[in-house]
Design brief:
The structure is a single chain. Helix content is 59%, strand content 0%. The chain is mainly α. A hairpin with a 6-residue loop joins strand 1 (569-571) and strand 2 (578-580).
Amino acid sequence: MEEPVVKIAEAKTHEILADLLKVDVLQEALVNLLEVNPTEKDSTRLMTVCADIQRVFSESSETSGTNAGSDAQKGTEAAKTQGNTTNEATARIQEAGVRAIVSVLSCQNNCYRAHFLASILLNLVNTNAVSPKVVCICLLADENLKTDHDIFWLMAFGLIKKIISGVDYKGVREIMKMCLDRARQLPTNLRRSQLHLVEALLGVMGLIFDRNASLLPGYFIVNELLKLYPDYKNWPHWSMSSLLTDFIDKFRRAAQMLSIVGRPKLRPIVEHSGQNSPSINSWKLDSLTLKFQLKGALPYSPELLEAQPGLLRYILRQPYSREMVYAVIDIQKKQKQRCNALEEQLVELMVSALDDFSRSDALTGGAPSASPSSGTAVATPDHHLCTCTHLSSLLIHFVLFQLISFPCLVMGLHAKLESKGSNRGRDHLMWVLLQFLSGSIQKNPFSDFLPILRLIEVLYPENEPLPNPDYTDSRCALQMSAMCILMHILKKAQTDNIKTPRMLPPVFKNHNEFLQSLAHNPQLPLMTAGATPDYRIALLVNAYSTNQEYFQRPILTLSESIQGNQKSTVPMPGINCVALGSTTPLSMTLLDSLTVHVKMSLIHNIGQHINKQAQHKSGVALAPALIETYARLLVYTEIESIGIKTFINNILPLVFKSHVWSLLHALLEMFIYRIHHSPPQYRVQLLSTLHHLAAVPLNTMTQMTQLHLCMESVALRLITGLGNSEVMPSLTRFFSPDTKPNLISTDSEELNRVLVLTMARAMHVTGKECCDTTGESARWCVDFLKVVMTHTPHTWANHTIQCFPPVIADFYHQCAAPRENMQTLKKAVEEEYRKWMSMSNETDIIAHFSLQHNTSPLFLCLLFKMVLDNDRVPPIAYKVLERVGPRQLAAHVRTLCDFLVLEFSNSAGGQHVTKYVETMNAIIWVYNIVPIDRLMLCLALRTQEGSEAHVCFFIIQLLLLKPCELRNRVQEFVKENSPDHWRQNNWYDKHMAFHRKFPEKFSPESILAEQGTLTAQYQTLPIYCSNVCLRFLPVLDIIIHRFLELYQVHKNLETILERLGMLYKFHDRPITYLYNTFHYYESKLRERPILKRRLVVAVIMSQQEIHPQGWALTEAYHQYLARPHDDIVWNPDLSYYTSLVRRLVHTMQGKAVFPSIEWRFNEFSSSGAHALHVSCVELMALPSNPTIVANMLMDVLLRGYCDIPTGEMIEWVNAIGLILTWLPEPYWIVVHDRIIDLLQHPTLATPGAGTLDPFTMLNLEQLESCLSDMTAALTLAIAHSFWHHASFGQVGRIPQLLRERIRPILTTEEQLVVVCHLVGPFLQRFNNESARKVFDVTKELYEALAKVDHSVTELKYMDPICDVFYHIKYMFTGDSIKTDVEGIIRSLRPALQRRLRFITHLNLDSIENPSNNAPGSTTPAHTANTAPSSTPTNATSNTGTVNNTSNNTAATPVPGSNVNQSGSAGSAGSVLGTPASGLGPLSAMGSSLGQTSSVGSGVSGSGGMSMGSIAAASSLASLLQDTSPMNSSIS
């Protein structure tokens, strides 16, 4: 029924207008020649017509409402539905009526009648009869709104300008877009007579764009403009280009405040576990375009809006960067979706790498290199070289996960290299492609590899055969790689019955003949130690790995050379231990010369051999050569799936299931002492497996003590080896309070204590301790600690808790576990010792003391007294120990440690102490009851306070240094061995020599075997890699940290470092350990420069024998180390810090700064990570206050920016930001201090004091180009770089900085602009990582705005500041903090309130009349231009509709019509009840029109208008284009 009602209303409106427009024929003919003055009759007629039209609307609405009500059901929901239906019907009726009036208006050539019709519309709007939005949209949507209809064009835009202030923001935005569409109708070549048409349109657009009018947030306007015209091209009309461009340009200041300085040139440090980088969100790119994921459509700088292929290529170049690549382009492995951008950049990386390879080959001058891929012995100009091994690893991985297409990649290479016209480095490229092809050609169609043939034609255009390579040079594998590719393709064609040319290209004639001769040669030469290298077998297997006829014999030869055979065996360390006789592993140079397919075959054969050994339970151990070769193969990331993954998931569980403990022991040793880089998930998985294995009863194992010690040592190394960025992700991934704890030991208190220490260290270094102690991560941490305490209750000493992050410290303060009373312990030991002396029955003794651990584990205390009194251990004691077992023995060791502290504390000193030390020395080294590493670990981790703690540390020092046993072993091991195991072929010989000189025994089995009390032949587990020195090294790490916690024992620590520090030569992560130590214990070491220097000497200088000069410390610091012991005064000048930063900058640029390093076996995976860590270690080791060091670092730029090479400023900013990020809080907090200094500078703290506006003062690029003072801009840039790289704990301090330090000093608008520059760019990161921080920062910004507003009389930068606030609202906060900031906005000056009124739904009335804003007053529910929704893109209206939230009905006043700038609030009255006085202004307008109309000469021609008509229309337009917003009464 509604549609007929709408049509009837429209028809009645037409009837009213038809009667109205009936005029005298003569008057119509002379309309443009007569001057018509408005009369009282015209006003009366206008009032009558408006009343009639309103009556039509009202009656139609009532009819529609009656029809809807008759069909509606009773009830609340039905009533609500009926109300909505009635409102919609009323809106359609009004729209139909307005459309009828507009259709008549659009056809008028009589300017007087057109004015009268426009007056009707204006009166209907003013009396709330129709919505101004409906009128505007109907006018703009009319098909006759064209430039040919001058009168209608001028009348329409004049009326729109008059009433648009009553339209809500959604309608204004819709009107703006329709105006832009109409602007396209303007002719390109304007005549002078058409300029007024442009002016009319520009008048409306100018009003919409006017910030003071506040019709629409400027943020919405620029958003729409940049979406419609992103390239600043194709403007709707040239006449509008200036208006639109100027408006967009005004937002450049806001965009500057939201942009990180130099962001396109900032670069991250790629760590091994890149996905765990704390600032990974800062580097994310769009996977399709490689552009930054910027929020909001703002006129950002072109550099920020461009694609960032350089950033992705930089990351791709770094070793072990795959995980970070996934994180940066935000792609999941499981998606298996092709990424064209990644493929293109991999092609670019390969092409650029060819130039590096060719330069490297030229510099070597043809000298043999250590490896065709790793470059370990090649002194290249770029040690950061993107190696073939790395490229092939990337290629294989990304193709395997279907992120790139191999044929497309090869075609891309072909196109690039063909256009380049160069074939330099071609052998290296062929080697990279061969890696993938050899392992995949059998599984993929032949057509996928045809593009390689075209590529070979481009790269090898010679007609003469290439000479055969020198097979004694490892580079021969590179030189033969193209021929090997052809061999594989020919074999594939033969298998698939595909015809190929019979003749190979002549360039490969010699290579083909050479390979054929190798294939038919019955002798397969192998590389032997000391002999001339021979790589012919590598060439053979590389060429025929897909041809089983020629492949089986050489690959079996390689496998058997390391597996050995049963005919020959060699002794192994231990009792009755023998292994298969092969002791020389395959060298890394040979393995590097093998293709991926060959490595896979080799590692597969090794895995099968291990499985057979496990199944057959052979008593002969694996050959040492096999263990070493297997470890070397596991470092290749390109075979990770069949390498380390298979090792962890398949081989280890199978060996354990088979109960072949010798195999398990060997594999665990290999993993922990040989594998340097393995993904953290595998290491954590192994830790979980070890805890599972430890839960299995070990009493059935004949070698249970040795295996248990091995598993505990491996677990200890796995825990302490977790990187700071790996700890929390790994723990959260594998731990849940509701599931069985996989990472927490159920019985080893020591391992759980070390896990807590590791977690505390990681939280401190990554800044997690700076986060809120009530957040989600804090709750997770507490849950984790609760589970730890459930299994192994323990406490910590106060000096340890003081170093903990607040979350952990608070937990241990609240959850105190009971401690053993020392006097009770002494009495219990005395009582049990009397029982021991009185009991004579052996069975009773074993039964009583072996079960003692369940109640009071005191047996080791008794043994201490036995040895102390009798200098011997009774034979029955060994039987008790055997019954106790290694796991239960741990409880006895803990009690022994407490008992030792008690005994030493009560000793008379002198001889008694010496006797105690000798007794313990005998227990450790003579009777082998407790290993030194296990006892020291337990002693170091016991909870001792006050003097007892001093005694405990004193005992550790005495047991380590007074006896000679440990010191002799350490000195011998350090002297005769090297940690570079991958370069050694004689490790077995040196290993055996050490164990022969210092044999190891594991009690009680080894003692019982010597006494002959074991019935079966006793056999210990073979030892392949470890010894007491290596097992003690992670314990020494912990001992040093515990000594650092107690100031009084620092001198004792210096003595320990002096005697045992040389052992750090074998530390697998020396720089990382020193970095963690200096970082975590910064407050303890700050005033101890001598101790810091001693730590550096012990850890770093012990490595100088195996590393070349300059691998870590600068020359200046070496000179400092060479000073006398007490000479610690050194204050480096600015040049020192400049050189240190320059070293990091050059390293990240890829220049050769450090000596060549084998990254696969280095503690760091890339030169950038190495450079950053050694730089931070050296800075923390300086004998200077952290504040001085940090200020000097910043002064490298702030004082020395003139010395920075041109174009490298941002790279230096990046380096300094990185260094500060990785330093402890006392260093990086100086960034906050410099920010405060900047804000308090007179040019900012004093209004008008500066010669430059703050935006120019902070624009680094602009200042650098004009050589101006850049101090302020560089301070901002360093702060941005610091927060961009920072952990969330560091960047999360911004709200506190704003609240506690910045807000109290804010007084000027310039300071506020600087604050917006500082924090604006990091709102997006807050939004991604913690939305609450966004709210905190935003509220602080509003508080800062209010403080500045009340402090200054004039605001010059209101618009850009308000634009930033709108950006925050629509991109991040929405209405979440509306209630928090509404009061602040209401307290601002009116100009600011007008600009910010859409954020808190303020209307103009409350702004202009503060009395209406008093507490308790209410804001009308429906006002014109109410606040937009949170997301601008969703706030759109459909053209031609009036269905909005205003509920415009005949019985309800039109929302917004009672809102005016002068502040008068119209009452909600009935449409038909409008007083007649309201029509007065309309008659006055008509009178004005008549008075200003001029008489024109001539008659308008066809399709044109007379001059008089145009003049009259122009006069009317000038009246309607009054710039003041619409009032309810127009004067």
